[in-house]
Design a protein that fits this description.
homopentamer; 1 helix; carboxysome (chains A, B, C, D, E); 5-stranded antiparallel beta sheet; bacterial microcompartment (chains A, B, C, D, E); 39% strand; mainly beta; 87 residues; OB fold (Dihydrolipoamide Acetyltransferase, E2P); EutN_CcmL (chains A, B, C, D, E)
Chain lengths: 87, 87, 87, 87, 87
């Protein structure tokens, strides 16, 4: 998984029906966890707020781990970091 | 997921029979979401146009999320961004 | 998916029995689609020739999309580009 | 897989219910195995300690290989290196 | 897939029970196939020796292609290159 900060969100009205009801948060990966690129978009089943540091799973883990096996999701917030100063 | 701009398309007549009927759009990932490389090819079940900013899922999510589980697809447009100026 | 040029092939006699019968083509990804590295090896169920530009799927899509679900394949040529000058 | 050193851990109280009971260890990949970024977060079913060098599997192997098929896990410690000086 | 050279091995006594019986070889990817990082660890069901050039599959293909579907394996040697001078 990677740790990153929620820095914004995007809205997509015309989208796959399997994505309806999801929030799309923009995550900026922590500098030393910049998995290929510094930002990515993740769904947020946990309910993190802008500015919070979160744990993000990518790949099939995002879809299956969020109970949305058939949805086109490859990144999901799976936890909120208690104390980002420990990073 | 990543956000990118539709910058073109490619045509492949001699291809896997499981890909027939799909459009292959060239996506240029937003600068800060350049997942490994700045461009990739994605199928377009949503119907985005050239110049539009789109949400792209990669990996098994692309195949399964587009309802084409058995097709050789590793990237798919899954939504069109309402307001790219928010990015 | 990525687009790349077929630049050669490799031969492996001592290999997984599940790979017997496959050709292993060396693909050089187009400069702006250099997914992590500029070259990779893909199987070629389509029958592309050296010098042709091809569409390549990676990950589980390569295995499943080529009907070789149980084979150790993570990249496959899935189409030949009609007009590479459009890239 | 990659080899890395356990350099810390993160705590996430508000998280996916499927992650409860897991430790989240920060792994710094060995310099020449820096898979996309030098750090990542992995679960630790093996019980490695801070400072130990570990073998880490990523992708679906992490979830399935740890017997947590339905959990949002994309990286897991799967072994502790006997003699890191051999690396 | 990628092509790389077997440059060493690592031993892990305390490991996932699903990995018992496997050799863990260190592979240095060929310069132009450096998938994200130049080295990785792969299991070796084929029996390659140190110094040999091998074909490596990564991701779910490694696990499933090696007949170890439930093991935490994300990279596997799947063939030995007949003539590395062709690379």
């Amino acid at each position: 998984m990677i740790v990153g900060k929620v820095v914004g969100s995007v809205i997509s009205t015309r989208k796959s029906s399997k994505l309806v009801g999801n929030k799309f948060m923009i995550i900026e990966a922590c500098a030393d966890m910049q998995k290929e690129s510094c930002r990515l978009v993740a769904i947020d089943p946990i309910g993190a707020g802008i500015g919070e540091y979160v744990l993000v799973a990518t790949g099939s883990a995002a879809r299956i781990g969020s109970g949305m096996d058939l949805a086109p999701i490859d990144a999901a917030i799976v936890g909120i970091i208690d104390d980002p100063s420990e990073l």
